[in-house]
Specification:
505 residues, alpha+beta, inorganic pyrophosphatase (n-terminal core), Diaminopimelate Epimerase, Chain A, domain 1, 4 domains, 6-stranded parallel beta sheet, 6-stranded mixed beta sheet, 13 helices
Length: 505
């Protein structure tokens, strides 16, 4: 869906959820600005039991001139656009409208109930990011609108716990690209906590739990405010015996979780996804992540008291954490692998992409490679190539090894994933678009590996990234280079048979 698809409607109302947060207000504000610029009659509203009272949100509305009005009833518009919410959720008051549209980043409970006009991007960390991309698609002049840029940035900032739980590269791109008013942001950032929030923070610490066997902590907060969850989880992790923690809050439609880790052997984003698997969605950074679990999936028996729900969720959470720690192996970087039980495989002539980074950057330049799986840091040498694998996964390779194992076909490489990898220079922040400069290459058939199929979750640190592991699931392959038993990595089960063949002679 595009915003221009709704320009046939004259009277448009934009609605965000009851008791709106900064992301909902920023998203609605962006839509209000766009349709006003197109000459439409636009109202921006929210319903519910009460008006906004949080100090940071009142400042947000005032300083950025956001015209969100509290209402209990409305005159039926030609089109009502739901921003950061969907009808059917308990925190959204329903109003009548001739036509309905939805722009959101939350998981859809029932696809059959979505109106034809909808744009749902469940993997995004904020609805502000969805609106930002829709505005860019329409060539809306964001550069000259500092207030809107600031609003969208603050929406992302709050919904990702001060940018600590960014889920998607599109969120990180918006963070990099927006030029927000630092003065306004400074005021808003220092008004995040009301005096009443101090009680909620204190109660969370009073009720905390620590598991000494696995080194994790748990705490429940009385509010789903992302800032409060972030404060509690950041502070809880400072306990000397903890390696990770999960802080959570019960909301009308589900459970919000905030996950932290302070050791390289546990990635917070992986732990969050493990907890949320089959129950909702999650993502974030290596050390800080978050997620949302849906009530319908966590509690299939709907008729339960809150006390029963809390007891059941505590049991589910602890069982998943036990499974994560008990059933995960870790392989450090640079050790010599005993190949007993491994089989020899030859790499097939598969198509890859490659960029000679040393043509674009000086040796010693530090780069951030951004992918759907997260950001990876690399430092360019005199002959560094960036390889793009069969699933658009990037990894560095030195020139001598590249020339020995690959040859260029003379054709450009075509990306096939949801998000094309990008490269950004740490020094000046400039982005290099890989889609225009990546060349197709093919393996020469001279590359061999020893591999075995994993039976347990495995964290692998390798030679080119000793501080950030890659993880393999049962069924994936642990591969060791035949010419270097200290060089190893994970190959996903879904691509292994397409890329390698067993050597039987």
């Amino acid at each position: 869906m595009r915003l221009r698809d709704m320009l046939s409607y004259e009277r448009i109302t934009i609605q965000c959820h009851n008791n709106p947060d900064a992301d909902a207000l920023a998203s609605g504000y962006g839509l209000w600005k766009y349709f006003r610029s197109q000459g439409k009659q636009v109202d921006f509203i929210y319903g519910g039991r009460e008006e906004i009272t949080k100090p940071n949100l009142l400042l947000f509305l005032q300083m950025l001139k956001i015209p969100a009005g509290y209402v209990t009833q409305i005159e039926e518009p030609d089109l009502l656009i739901l921003a950061d919410c969907q009808y059917g959720e308990s925190n959204v008051q329903r109003f009548n409208a001739k036509e309905l549209a939805v722009i959101d980043h939350h998981e859809v409970a029932d696809l059959s109930k979505l109106p034809p006009l909808h744009e749902i991007r469940e993997s995004y960390g904020s609805c502000a990011t969805v609106v930002y991309e829709l505005l860019k698609q329409e060539n809306y002049d964001l550069k000259s609108d500092i207030l809107l840029q600031t609003a969208l940035f603050y929406g992302l900032y709050t919904d990702t716990v001060r940018l600590q739980e960014l889920w998607h590269p599109a969120d990180r791109d918006m963070w990099d690209e927006l030029e927000a008013d630092e003065g306004i942001l400074s005021v808003l950032k220092n008004a995040n906590i009301a005096s009443s929030d101090l009680m909620a923070i204190g109660n969370a610490f009073i009720r905390h739990e620590i598991n000494q066997e696995y080194g994790y902590g748990l705490a429940e907060t009385e509010t789903g405010d992302p800032n409060i969850l972030g404060i509690v989880s950041d502070t809880l992790l400072e306990v000397d015996s903890l390696k990770a923690c999960v802080v959570y809050a019960f909301l009308p439609t589900g459970i919000k979780i905030s996950v932290r880790s302070c050791v390289k052997e546990i990635r917070a984003d992986e732990l969050a996804r493990f907890v949320a698997d089959g129950l909702g969605n999650a993502g974030g950074h290596i050390k800080k992540a978050g997620g949302f679990l849906l009530n319908d999936k966590v509690f299939p028996e709907k008729e339960m008291s809150m006390e029963e729900r809390k007891k059941q969720f505590s049991a589910v959470l602890k069982e998943r954490l036990k499974k994560f720690f008990d059933e995960t192996d870790t392989i450090p970087a640079g050790i010599r692998i005993d190949l007993d039980g491994y089989r020899l495989y030859r790499k097939l002539p598969a198509l890859h992409g490659a960029v000679e980074l040393s043509r674009h950057y000086k040796a010693g330049t530090r780069l951030k490679v951004r992918t759907l799986e997260g950001d990876t840091d690399i430092t360019v040498s005199a002959g560094t190539y960036l390889m793009i694998g069969t699933s658009d996964e990037p990894y560095p390779i030195e020139a001598e090894k590249f020339r020995r194992k690959y040859r260029f076909t003379g054709r450009p490489f075509e990306f096939h994933g949801e998000y094309d990898p990008t490269v950004r220079n740490y020094l000046d922040g400039k982005k290099l678009n890989l889609s225009g400069i990546t060349q197709e290459c093919v393996t020469t058939g001279t590359s061999y590996i020893y591999a075995r199929q994993l039976t347990r979750r495995t964290h692998v640190f390798n030679l080119w990234n000793r501080d950030r592991y890659v993880y393999g699931k049962p069924g994936d392959y642990f591969a060791v280079m035949a010419d270097d038993q200290t060089d190893y990595y994970i190959i996903q089960n879904s691509i292994f048979d397409r890329v390698y063949e067993e050597v039987t002679e």
